[in-house]
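TASK: fixed-backbone design
INPUT:
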């Protein structure tokens, strides 16, 4: 169940400083949408990641790409500026909504996910500057995945987030797609492979070699 405003972060990092001599303590906390960002906040205050990693059999399971991304976020420091997040923990009962009796737990629809929009403050060449981190929870299977997508700007990221659940809305890659210049496209159109089957022509003049070849960015 959501605590507070619907969609708000449902986790919190809690930092306690004790002054044993004075018999006092100071407590601070920060709400976070996923565990890795709560860990990030605590690490910035001197905590050790190994001591912050949950270890219990009852915890949901995940895959290695998710664990790698979680560790990267936990250790990212202030690299990302987090623009917004939304946590959905909606439980739907289609049969009951249609006037029938309440469904069994295994027949309910659990829409549990979290999206986070972030701006990379130290973007690398060839990578999009805006990211969406998407955590998808399989409630009945007690598992989850965390994935990352790249966007050219915040508007594009928000547009993707508003279409979560649509079948034609996969997370785009973090890498910027290589651009194709008109000169490159023309060269491909007149390549020997594209001219296969054409009638022989008289020898053409040698191609002009320029000193400004089109470049593509790679990761």
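OUTPUT:
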């Amino acid at each position: 169940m959501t605590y507070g405003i619907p969609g708000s972060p449902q986790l919190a990092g809690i930092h306690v400083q004790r002054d044993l001599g004075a018999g006092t303590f100071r407590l601070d906390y920060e709400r976070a949408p996923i565990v890795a960002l709560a860990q990030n906040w605590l690490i910035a205050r001197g905590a050790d990641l190994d001591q912050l990693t949950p270890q219990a059999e009852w915890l949901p399971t995940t895959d290695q790409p998710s664990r790698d991304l979680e560790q990267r976020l936990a250790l990212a420091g202030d690299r990302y500026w987090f623009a917004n997040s939304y946590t959905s923990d909606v439980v739907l009962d289609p049969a009951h909504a249609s006037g029938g009796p309440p469904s069994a737990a295994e027949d309910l629809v659990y829409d549990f996910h979290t999206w986070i929009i972030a701006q990379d403050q130290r973007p690398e060449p060839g990578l999009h500057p805006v990211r969406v981190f998407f955590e998808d929870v399989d409630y009945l299977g007690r598992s989850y995945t965390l994935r990352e997508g790249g966007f050219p700007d915040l508007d594009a990221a928000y547009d993707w987030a508003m279409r979560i659940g649509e079948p034609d809305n996969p997370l785009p890659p973090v890498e910027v797609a290589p651009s194709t210049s008109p000169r490159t496209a023309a060269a491909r159109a007149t390549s020997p492979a594209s001219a296969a089957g054409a009638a022989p022509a008289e020898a053409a003049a040698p191609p002009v070699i320029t000193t400004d070849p089109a470049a593509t960015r790679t990761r």
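COMMENT: The helical segments are 35-43, 49-52, 64-74, 94-97, 154-161, 182-189.
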